[in-house]
Amino acid sequence: MPLRRDLEDIGHAWGTLADTDPLWAICVDPAHRHGRWDPQAFYASGEVEVAQALSRAEGLGMAVSGRRALDFGCGAGRLTRPLAARFETAVGVDIAQEMLDLAARDNPVASRCEFVRNTEPDLRVFADGEFDLIYSSFVLQHLSPRLIAVYLAEFARVLRPGGSLIVDLPTRARWNVKGMGYRLLPPPALGFVQRRLLGYPAPMRMHGMTERRTRDWLSAHDVDVLAVEPESRHPGWHMLRYFARHRP
Ligand SMILES: C[S@@+](CC[C@H](N)C(=O)[O-])C[C@H]1O[C@@H](n2cnc3c(N)ncnc32)[C@H](O)[C@@H]1O
Question: What total of structural domains would you count in the chain?
């Protein structure tokens, strides 16, 4: 499928998810379905996540403050807001306008945030070396492997030399009930199960990339992985969090 068409499908699905049950679609948890996420708890989870990730990055000698941070796939701004406390400006980019509207609403740090819609299979909306840090959590997994590669290369381009990258990516589905569905069912069948049996408003696709390929691809784009840590939030997938730095 051409990249642009693929992205249109993804944008359409996320627009529907954002319209129907946005906070649940961002932090999937059956207990919080049908609007049952308390917004305060939702945003507090972002504070905790960013504090932990930046503290780990700082321990690795990575830059964790500066002028501009990019939150790729920002959703409702759960992570953009805490990033704005540490950078002059935090830029949240998302494919779904409905998510960006939510991110901008009742935002206590609005003056330090910018929200940008991007529906292109690249980040040409941003200049080379524009960002001190790029953070992307629970986003790339929803894109096809070709799109994952494209955006990782774009992260490298828009990151300044010496800048920091923190990104979550799955490697492969687990051998459990949830993971088996992803392993065994072709995408249309998986979409059917998600919509008809699980009642999802739109399908949530999942893809992974091996650690070796991710490291090699980043390295080929002048980004060195400093540490890789397991991320346990997805019940059906082995997830990794990469801490990386653009070669100075
Ligand atoms: C699971 S949510 C995660 C949101 C946020 N990172 C967080 O952890 O709170 C995934 C987000 O990625 C966005 N997204 C999916 N594909 C995208 C793309 N190609 N470009 C930008 N955003 C995208 C979706 O619209 C959605 O808001």
Answer: 1
